Amino acid sequence: MTVEIGLVLTIILVMLICLIKEVARPHFILFVTLALFLLIGILEPEEALRGFSNEGMLTVGLLFVVAGAVQQTGALTALVKRSLGTGNGRKKSLARMMYPVAGLSAFLNNTPIVVMFTPIVRKWCEDRNIAPSKFLMPLSYAAIFGGTLTLIGTSTNLVIHGFMLERGLEGFTMFQLAVVGLPASIIGVLYMVTIGDKLLPDRKTSTEAFQDASKEYLSEAKVEKNSSLAGKTILEAGLRSLKGLYLIEIIRNGYRTAPVASYTTLESEDRLIFTGPFSTIIDLQNVKGLHVETGTDVKLNELQNGSASLMEAVVSHRSVLAGQTVKETCFRTTYDAGVVAVHRNDEHVKGKVGEIVLKPGDTLLLLANRDFEKRWTGTEDFYLISPVDKPEITDSKKSLISLTTLVAMILLAAFGILSMFEAALLAVVTLFLTKSVSVDVTRRFIQFDILLLIACAIGIGLALEQSGAAAFIAEYFVEISSGFGVIGALFVVYLLTSIFTEIITNNAAAVLMFPIAHAVANQLGQDPVGFFVAIAIAASASFATPIGYQTNLIVYGPGGYRFTDYLKVGIPLNIIYLIVTVSIVSVVWLNV
What we know:
This protein is an alpha+beta fold and 592 residues long. The chain has a domain at 64-203 and 394-445. It is built from 24 helices and ten strands. It has helices at 3-21, 26-39, 45-48, 55-71, 75-84, 90-105, 110-127, 136-147, 155-166, 178-199, 206-217, 282-285, 331-335, 372-376, 396-414, 420-433, 439-445, 448-466, 469-480, 485-503, 506-524, 528-540, 550-556, 563-588, and strands spanning 218-223, 246-252, 255-257, 271-275, 290-292, 308-315, 337-344, 347-348, 363-369, 382-386. Strands 3-2-4-1-5 form a five-stranded antiparallel sheet. The two termini are 31 Å apart.
């Protein structure tokens, strides 16, 4: 091992530790790593910037726009509602949901699909007295299945495709991955409606959990007659500085005001509803002029009024809220909404609301103005779960244009008339010229942090390759799997990619493993395409943790899941995909 190889591997190891411990956002960690390689001379500037002009990365950016335009149409929602059926035969409905969702995910970004369908599926379950936990995890898994079917099924496939083109290879065709992905998906759905269905928990939704636990965190105080507080604002009365309690609503003469602004003036006999642990009730008792109740008869669903609504919002993996306390985020001021409670890992998070450190996947129960959803849908901070809103596009002509453009793009790329990048570029130009999407709306669709992560990861992968670190690791892989030949090496490559995907991001896992897989194939004298197919499938097939793939995180809170639920249901799926992939790749691409 040379000094340069040792240095590169050390930096990569530190990067992986930072990703696992979530010391910062993934794209920032990779950006710093890339900058470090540039500053110490491992990469030249043009090499470090190569990822920003990579065809695969640019194609991903264009497809965000195409998928966003189609997402706005009402056709997708109607399709899933029809596919679920009446609910007479739960397992049949489960299969009927998973197959079309997988089909849609093969051509559209799976994250917005799961965001869009989670409230629909949950409402469908609740109307039929079925635990949503029986359907939401399968919804996420179905979207992941679809990502393994086509070149555009997930950004990971396109990144690997772009790497292949840079090395003079032909790249993946539109349906090449389906050789592995289709049989694996079919087996995956069969597993979910049989064994998986038995392993899935039958659990309360986050809404029901919030309702059941409401007596633990809702309390009430009343402004006494002739109280000195009457005529004072909330801020002047010191009700903004309570350590553990948040004022979420004022009830006055039967009329409810929520969320409560700091300039709101108090009146005698106002009923004040607070959220927070009862251990902090002494803070209220110290406020002169307030009569504190030992509890409240106000039910959770009664907090709503004509202007305010209870909403559930799941903290996004890209949210600025993650890693901060509710108080540090200045939540009420920033979002004009009050945090009533926080739900995590199938239970209400106890303690002072303001001191709860928020994590990706947390479900927040909010009391907010009814325009909250409109203002914050599509932002990086939340996956909004309720209430369910209608799609933005109601113009049937624009809907038809969006769907036709998508089909035309797929056909042009599938038949080799245009490259995937050219077809996606033409599709975006068509959508702009027909005014099916606007520039302002497009900004919401493009996930810039993912594009930055991909671009940086490509440069890091180049550092692994050019320093000789990839070849060094490949030699080790070949050596430890020598007793099992090519299949053993393929198994190790798939397994390591799968492990990386579960603990870091799927795109980073694929980019790190690409040069290693390429070196392994070269040392074994095998067609590298088979190894690239394996890492593409492994990087997408993430089922064993809620953090491995963002669609798993989206359904984590709304489904009332625990971390162990993913391990129990997902590990067998990971094994199924590993066996199917290694078996088919060995026969189709490798000389075994």
